[in-house]
Amino acid sequence: MLFAKSTYIQRRALLKQKVGSGLVLIFGNNEAPCNYPNNAYKFRQDSSFLYFFGQHREGLVGVIDIDNDKEYLVGNDIDIEDIIWTGFVPSVHDLAEEAGIANSLPMSALQQMVNTANAKGQQIHYLPPYRHDIMIQIGDLLGIHPLTTRANASVTLIKAVVDMRAVKSDEEIAEIERAMAIGYEMHTTAMKACRPGVTEKYIAGLLEGIACGHGCKVSFNTILSMHGEIFHGDPSLRPLEAGRLMLCDAGAETVDNYCSDNTRVTPISGKFTSRQRDIYSIVEACHDLVISKAKPGVKWLDMHLDVCRLMTDMLKDLGLMKGNTEDAVQAGAHAMFLQHGLGHMMGMDVHDMEGLGQVYVGFDDEVRPSTQFGTDCLRCGRRIQPGWVLTDEPGIYFIPALIDKWKAERMHTEFINYDLLETYRDFGGIRLEDDLLITADGCRVLGEKVIPYHIDEVEAFIAQ
Predict the structure, then answer these.
(1) Looking at the domain covering 170-463, what would its CATH class be?
(2) Fold topology of 5-166
(3) How far is Cα 64 from Cα 325, in angstroms, rounded to an integer?
(4) Which of 139, 232, 238, 335 allows an S-S link to 146, with CB 3.0 to 4.6 Å?
(5) The model's pTM
């Protein structure tokens, strides 16, 4: 376990207070076969199970009986046939003791526990499952169709978990900082390797090797492409071309499953062209605006819209946009250039707790999700709080298909200069991303060393 036993005991005690009553089931993950049963993907434990129970072994369920003040770790002991192949694995009883849990049971006992709770009229709380094997397991336990399990998850439990996991403790921040250090090595390696003729796939492979070499893995599939306008562009075997830009969005996940997430853009020839500098400087200014203004009590939706206004003003200076800035942003015309939200929470999941439902993670009764194109992709809108970790990731993208669509539909012609925009069709995209800790009176960029991102710093780093 990463933290002391007392940490997990305290977390479960607070969860009981927040949920109030009932039987809480928190499912760990199972092994996931890749192409046949004994060839599995690298195991990754469920983040909420890790948060409350701390154990990395597969095939476990944590049970908290709030009404009877009892806790259980449920799972089957590993038999000798598996130990021969995998080595010694502690018993479920021993794992329970490590986590400060007095009771352990075999998996066969879980159905009876659920049946007894139902007979007593206890509410059964579980989090929305995202793996189909867990959907089937929950469906069998509760006698409901597996595909209805997400819709029937406990909103009370979801909100309690979100409240707790959103605020990072000092020991959690220290673990994120370890991920940031690995991420720094990954990104600076990508910048050093970026030159004409090297393939996207080769550089992405270097980054994955660095993460694995530190005993962890990448926190998500690396995005690395000359086509920066594709948000999740997979690296290809295409060689890098002189004069273009390489966008790298990558992060590390520590062996104890805390994440980093950064994006940098590198000129493949070593120097930005004047046009690339113009667009990059806008994204840079928007990125730095967030660092200067983010603090407790600020609505992240307002922070996003402030970025959109600054971007619109600077795009007007280049002649790509026109008209009244406030009217343009209210109409959503800026979404020609920025089609996603400003950032997302980060922690044990690189998009922290997104599987619990973004409407609970990033929004509340005061701030609801937008339905406007572009702003509807904002993953967090509510007032930010001390201890939150959020990504700051503005970008500008020139997407030919979107240009064609809006131009044909004469969308926002009062705000967009389509004649000039046509000359940027092959530009690609630029995004800059860092991870911010919200402090008592502002924010700070996580990571002892910040990956170079100011234009002159980037060019100087490449030259060195």
Answers:
(1) alpha beta
(2) Creatine Amidinohydrolase; Chain A, domain 1 (3.40.350)
(3) 53
(4) 139
(5) 0.95
